[in-house]
């Protein structure tokens, strides 16, 4: 009896442009990601079975593999090296995603020039920068403006995948930058540039070239309206490192985070300052998120937040005014509005503050986006300070998670936060009580441990100095 054919004779198939899910007929909603109106006709899908072939490169014992070939190479940008786990690994494929205008192209052009100049003991490296969004002349203008011109940096304005791979074969660069992966297309695949099929083919071809030539590859990726990386989710699985580059449009600060990293940890954050003259790494960005008022003001409190493993000082401000109508306003900037509403309810119910007749405005300083639960205590103190018009100790930091019962829960990195506050000149800390305690306390630094939000309220009500204890 003859074997059945594995060919799919459905004629036409439909694929989701968001996640790549396929169906034999058009449906209004994707069965995988539940997005509406994302299925497009892509043609016949043929499933093939591949027979075993002759092995060209036999498998090795893991003890015999030379790991030195995958050693990290410094990029010349310390903040990027921090996020990548020590630098770029030869043959690695790194995807950098971010919103339009956040500075992705500027950062990578700066990395390209510094890596090409190579001031870290090696010979100058060949770097190929392929752009599908600008001409070579436009990239050169930006490179001159930010000082990113190097003798071994090659520019190419391409959108065809075959031509791009030809450029790679001709130059054989150590570092390849593709800006962006959604603008390139292959003549061998149906669909326009940026579609699921095209992105999958372009990424797979570039990854294959990177592994074969042992060439580090940086891919720029677009993001959708909700901030996720555009194209099939398969793209994130194929690459070795996925980095997210974000920041407020009206702020110069940019943060780089590793969402996925096969060669290092994903809890490091790189900080950058984007200016007219380019982009620079910030080794100590703590002062950006605190105000510089000459005299203490009620309604403000300093906290220490953890961005990855890096402690950063930030300031929370609150303003309460009598409500003009029957429904008080709740306006929040830089924080989670739902969590602020919860804290207002906890303060009213557990600490005895009447907040239901006040308009509440809560914000961060410097355009910082803060979402860590450890900010709860500082937010609560700023609200209490604004309500009572009493100033929080100007040299005090506060951090801790507040529960619905009013309890203040421990948070990770208590001692690390205290050490950072002491380094920047603060002398007092209000922290949650924990079984391990606050750890080693720096000289001339005092710590008050609390278990309930009512204790923090009493601290504000009885004066700005408060009953601190060692």
From TrEMBL:
Keywords for this protein: ATP-binding, DNA damage, DNA repair, DNA-binding, Hydrolase, Metal-binding, Nucleotide-binding, Stress response, Zinc, Zinc-finger
Region (Lon-protease-like) location: 359-470
Binding site for ATP: 98-105
PROSITE patterns: RECA_2
Database matches in CDD domains: RadA_SMS_N
PANTHER family for this protein: DNA REPAIR PROTEIN RADA, DNA REPAIR PROTEIN RADA-LIKE PROTEIN
Cross-referenced NCBIfam families: sms
Function, as annotated: DNA-dependent ATPase involved in processing of recombination intermediates, plays a role in repairing DNA breaks. Stimulates the branch migration of RecA-mediated strand transfer reactions, allowing the 3' invading strand to extend heteroduplex DNA faster. Binds ssDNA in the presence of ADP but not other nucleotides, has ATPase activity that is stimulated by ssDNA and various branched DNA structures, but inhibited by SSB. Does not have RecA's homology-searching function.
Free-text comment on this protein's domains from its UniProt entry: The middle region has homology to RecA with ATPase motifs including the RadA KNRFG motif, while the C-terminus is homologous to Lon protease.
The protein, known as: DNA repair protein RadA
Encoding gene per record: radA
